[in-house]
Specification:
The structure is a homodimer. By secondary structure, chain A is α/β, with parallel strands linked by helices. Chain A has helices spanning 24-34, 64-72, 91-99, 110-119, 133-142, 148-161, 177-192, 201-205; strands at 12-17, 38-40, 43-45, 59-61, 76-82, 85-90, 103-108, 124-129, 170-173. The first copy, chain A, is 40% helix and 21% strand. Chain A is globular, with a radius of gyration of 18 Å.
């Protein structure tokens, strides 16, 4: 039997966002590992390629001029300065995958997600939350790389960013990574059953 | 820890609909059996109570006058004549459960679902589909109670009703009952993570 319902006419962009310390990276990695139908978005950056990194896989490595050109041409879903470098999400890579029926996941901070919402509201927006603020602080402190000053800044930013949860479609509490991944998987499964992601449903049922 | 995210501020009404032969009853029963957080809506009817039936459980048994009064007062989410009797979905019963944070499932034909959509678009609408028309015919024929004439009518109606899938939020193909139930469960899980179903998310995270 032709199981047409297992293949969307069009995929979607899943924006997994939230404050630092919520555990976006961990949840995203675990999700990608478990789900073959989900692919990762690839960012563009102006920073230098490090040993072992592959262009088009880890990042699209581009010059500052090229990056600016992409912004000017509206080719970025979002972008930001981080220290001396630019990072952004090229629209074309993600949209091509979506058109092929794939689910493209984009792990990104709150500022980036809000930028995307303005230019591409068709994406699914998930806000990843810590169960409470103590746990959030613990996770930020747990990163050996942070100074006391940067911990304070991250914590304050996280507190402020929680206001934006109302802008998102869904929220998931990262109490345990396992449960958070399951919750995101349920959201993905549900979204795969959206009528709007399929063309010609009746025609498919009646076999035309 | 206070796992606030396991309790919605407000539940929702889940309308499980589709043509006859799609298997609404079977999927709905299996779903209710497996999921304690999901409750069934109770219809009102003017038909006589049969032995063993309980008022307020199987149906709300009401007089024709009372039924008409409920329609006139806008107390019905939908209603229909079936032979000499009236059947309808009283709004109050379902809405009270929703306000208590429960998920209320309503198994209903396409005409009824479309009526509900007009007066209560906050509900979640799922269209249950047969995998193909041969299977649908088999299922309709499989009901010993049907005459050849009524089989023909049901099949034609089903064919026509497939047009309305576009009006629904989600579709689920009832290829196997087990998978269909899983799909509906994913939709329920996802909808439980809707930001709009929770009040004061930030306040809950920061513990206020």
């Amino acid at each position: 039997m032709n199981r047409w319902w297992n293949n969307m006419s069009r995929g979607f962009l899943l924006v997994l966002s939230g404050p630092s310390g919520a555990g976006k990276g961990t949840v995203c990695d675990a999700l990608l590992k478990k789900n073959k139908g989900v692919v990762s978005s690839v960012s563009a950056t102006t920073r230098k390629k490090r040993p072992g990194e592959v262009d088009g896989e880890n990042y699209f490595f581009v010059s500052e001029e090229k990056f600016q050109e992409m912004i000017d041409n509206g080719e970025m879903l979002e972008y930001a300065h981080v220290h001396e470098n630019m990072y952004g999400t090229p629209k074309k890579f993600a949209m091509d995958k979506v058109e092929e029926g794939e689910i493209v996941i984009l792990e990104i901070d709150v500022q980036g997600a809000l930028q995307i919402k303005k230019v591409y509201s068709d994406a699914i927006f998930i806000f990843l939350l810590p169960p409470n603020m103590d746990e959030l602080k613990k996770r930020i402190v747990g990163r050996a790389t942070e100074t006391e000053h940067s911990i304070e800044i991250r914590y304050k930013n996280a507190f402020r960013e929680l206001d934006f949860v109302e802008e998102y479609d869904y929220f998931v509490v990262n109490d345990t990574v396992e449960q958070a991944v399951k919750d995101v998987e349920s959201i993905i499964e549900a979204e795969k059953h959206r009528v709007k992601r399929f063309k010609y449903i009746k025609e498919k049922v009646i076999g035309e």
